[in-house]
Amino acid sequence: RRARPGSITVHLGKPARARPPVRRAVRVHVYDLLERECRAEILGSTVSVGAGLISLNDSTQTLGFGVFHAGVEIDGVEYSFGWCEDGTGVYSCTPKDSPGYHFRTTVEMGVCVLTRAQINQLLSRMVKEWTGPSYSTLGRNCCTFSNELCVGLRVGEIPPWINNLASTFAP
User: What is the pTM of this model?
Assistant: First the structure.
């Protein structure tokens, strides 16, 4: 039977089920600021500064601070921030393998229920706002970037010990 013009046909049946939101694990990967093999010439002698820094962080982490690099993993990609001459300072890498750093530990931040489109929108905004020249060792660094990204992903702030040393001396 035909519907009259201007009328609608309602089909009764099972209501459509809403899909549950995708729950994405968010992790902060923490690194020592230098690779173990990093060496420097000081007064004619070769010094293992990487191993020294790692040892220092081993001692100070229990006190709630250290010299760390951080990145945020979501959907199998790690995002972080660093200095560059121009353009964005945001970069991505394989989780737990940020170039130039020694992996230390992972902090589970919880789950994000933002859609992929919302995550992409957040990352796109941060790519524009976090330029390489805006990097500051104490005030706008990989740890402050990681914190802002975690807050944007709605999993809360990163643990304070990750950036305590830099934030203590930030202007």
Answer: 0.81
DSSP for 22-59, written as a single string? P-EEEEEEEEESS-TT--EEETTEEE-HHHHHHHHHHH
**Phi, psi dihedrals of residue 102, rounded to the nearest 5°:** -105, 115
Residue 159 CA neighbour count, 13 Å, CB half = 19
**Could you tell me the two tokens for 108?**
């589970």
Q: In this predicted model, what pLDDT tens digit does every residue of 54-69 receive, in sequence order?
A: 777 777 777 777 888 9
Q: How many CB atoms lie within 10 A of CB 171?
A: 5
d(CA 85, CA 9): 62
DSSP string computed for 72-93? EEETTEEEEE---SSSB-EEEE
